[in-house]
Amino acid sequence: MKRPAKYVFITGGVLSSLGKGITTASLGALFKFNYLKVTAVKLDPYLNVDAGTMNPFQHGEVFVTDDGAETDLDLGHYERFMGVRLGAKNNVTAGKIYESVITRERRGDYLGATVQTVPHVIEEIKSRITALEDGLDIILVEVGGTVGDIESQPFLEAIRQMALQRRGDTVFLHLTLVPFLGTVEELKTKPSQHSVQELRRIGIQPDLIVARSSIRISDAAREKIALFSNVDPACVISLPDVRTIYEVPLLLRAEGVDKILLQRLGLRKPAGQAGASLVERWERLARTLTSAKDTVEIAVVGKYIKLHDAYKSVVESLHHAAAANGRKLELKWIDSEKLREATLRESFAGVSGILVPGGFGERGIEGKVLAAAYARLKKIPYFGICLGLQIAVIEFARNVLGLDGAGSTEFTARSRHPVIDLMEAQKAKKKLGGTMRLGAFTCNLKSDSLARRVYGRPRIVERHRHRYEVHSGYVQKLEKAGLSASGLDQATGLVEIVEIKDHPFFMGVQFHPEFLSTPLSPHPVFKAFVAAAISMKPSA
Ligand code: GLN
Questions:
Q1: Which segment, 57-71, 428-442, 511-525, is predicted with the most confidence on average?
Q2: Is residue 487 within 6 Å of ligand 1 at its C-beta?
Q3: Each residue of 437-456: pLDDT tens digit?
Q4: H runs (alpha helix) in 69-131
Q5: 464 and 396 within one domain
Q6: Domain boundary at 254, 283, 312, which?
Q7: Domain final residue, candidates 257, 283, 309
Q8: Atom of ligand 1 at shortest distance to CA of 465?
Q9: DSSP labels for 420-438?
């Protein structure tokens, strides 16, 4: 029999982008500080079955899990803050729910019943949530969207029912905005009143209100919110803007949130744990992130730079790596579509490392090739991720091997030198629609390589999300000329890592190491890349 878990349901009011994902992740960290077993699930009200098809310009990064699920970027926050590994089941979309209800209806599973939102869709949502119970103390359930949206109603109804069926084992936390109006120098609680009213109208009484505001909320505002929300003033939590998201768990802890939740849920910190060490490590991290004196400047060259969320995990991993090196990160966003040979020097002035992240499609490719060439020739540390590896290979093939027009068949179907191409097995699959290499794969590292030194072990497992590969027909030539393939996929022998020996740091990886970096356990390649950048003189 599975042990029943306790639940914290997290909803949001007034408007989106208040930091519900970070708050949920931070609650997870708080439970971890108390040595409790916790996981989280994101309920997304959109009808996409998963985030794989969504445009990063609109929706931010697609976060990939070990099992190859393409999920909402909030799962990245959960993993980073909670130090857990999640999977497909931790992101439930309305698309997934309706897909399975309709499949069952077509199969005749409902035995002639009229299939309806209540009860069938609601039951499906509840069963997806409770399916997560597996020796856990707590499950955090974040409801995407804002209370009052049409789309999120079935999800809210599902958690309302769960609370009824599991009295005493659930807590509702509502995140809301308390704007500070400069003209009257006042915190305004009206929008929060309305969103709490809306929540209560559908039968949910929040237990805690987290008030997001630019400043700490006053006692008067706290009292007022408590009164109209029908909660204890101690359960109105002030969450002002912070310098780094990693301060949020510490802030919530200082407000006593962990004590309140443990008490409400009848949970206790397990006996015999040292206690402070995780919190101390977290405090040290937050201190370095906010007050390290020295900085390191890294350029990220991409095409989605207008929406920084598109590179969320890459940026977080750089922060982790900078902190691990005792530095504060300074990011320079470089739009690859605007890069020109003549402006390279100016664009990279002051920069100590160049990172080319993943991407799809042709736009901005030539700018990235220029950036890789600049890094290689000027001996500036270069880190290419996924597309960034492919770019490094294209650049090397063109400029060192002299293969004119070398490219990827993703961009030019009839490239004269398709150094990046679909492999035979994928070409067959392409006709069937599923061509992406997704999720965790094992890679063997060659001895005496930078990769082997950086990882400190011969075999690694990393997450993937790509379609194209380094063409095996060119590997020997590339290696001979100095771009060595230092990591190969264990099962297929496909190239996973390339590097240049005669360079301070030049590495491309076909996988996405950014999905495995956490603040307390920064990814070794990011750490080594930033360390190499630090030991450089910034480019003039
Ligand atoms: N577009 C490239 C491919 O499909 C790279 C993908 C990526 O960077 N995630 O192989």
A1: 511-525
A2: no
A3: 999 999 999 999 999 999 99
A4: 74-82, 94-107, 122-130
A5: yes
A6: 283
A7: 283
A8: 9
A9: EE--HHHHHHHTTT---EE
CB-ligand 1 contact for 463 (6 Å cutoff): no
| Centre of ligand 1 from the C-alpha of residue 418, in Å | 15
Q: Is 411 in the pocket of ligand 1 (CB under 6 A)?
A: no
Minimum-distance ligand 1 atom for the alpha carbon of 361: 1
Determine the Cα–Cα distance for residues 500 and 518; give it in Å rounded to an integer.
27
Query: Is 24 inside a domain boundary?
Result: yes
Q: Render 195-230 in DSSP notation, one character per residue.
A: HHHHHHHTT---SEEEEEESSPPPHHHHHHHHHHHT
Same domain, 257 and 303: no
Q: Are residues 62 and 142 in the same domain?
A: yes
Report in angstroms the alpha-carbon separations of 309 from 105, 129, 299, 332.
38, 27, 16, 15
Are 270 and 337 in a shared domain? no
Of ligand 1's listed atoms, the one at least distance from the Cα of 359 is 8
Model pLDDT, residue 274: 59
Of 402, 352, 392, nearest to 370 by C-alpha is 392
C-alpha of residue 507 to centroid of ligand 1, in Å: 16
pLDDT at 169 over 60: yes
| Residue whose CA is at the smallest distance from ligand 1 atom 8 | 358
What's 516's domain CATH number?
3.40.50.880
Tell me the mean pLDDT in the region 104-108. Answer: 95
Give 469 Cα–ligand 1 centroid separation in angstroms: 9
The Cα–Cα gap between 42 and 40 comes to 7
Q: Is the CB of 360 under 6 A from ligand 1?
A: yes
Range of the domain at 326: 294-535
Q: How far apart are CA 503 and CA 400, in angstroms?
A: 15
Atom 6 of ligand 1, nearest CA residue: 466
Tokens 């409902």 appear where? 110
Q: How close is the Cα of 524 to the center of ligand 1, in Å?
A: 22
CATH of the domain at 134: 3.40.50.300
Residues 137 and 226 in one domain: yes
- Asked, for residue 389, whether it belongs to a domain, the answer is yes
Give the catalytic positions in this structure.
Answer: 386, 512, 514
Residue 289 lies in a domain: no
Whether residues 177 and 299 share a domain: the answer is: no
Cβ burial of 350 (10 Å; 0-12, 13-18, 19+) is exposed
Query: What percent of the chain is modeled with pLDDT above 70?
Result: 96
Mean confidence (pLDDT) of the chain: 93
Do 254 and 342 share a structural domain?
no
Residue 521's φ and ψ, nearest 5 degrees, are -145, 75
- The answer to the question of residue 288 being in a domain is no
205 and 307 both lie in a single domain: no
Q: Is the CB of 466 under 6 A from ligand 1?
A: yes
| Burial (CB count <10 Å: 0-12, 13-18, 19+), residue 491 | exposed
Q: Using 50, 70 and 90 to split pLDDT, how confident is the model at 52?
A: confident
CA angle 473, 499, 478 (to 5 degrees): 25
Q: Is 359 in the pocket of ligand 1 (CB under 6 A)?
A: yes
pTM for this one?
Answer: 0.94
Our count of domains for the chain comes to: 2
C-alpha 193/C-alpha 196 separation (Å) is 5
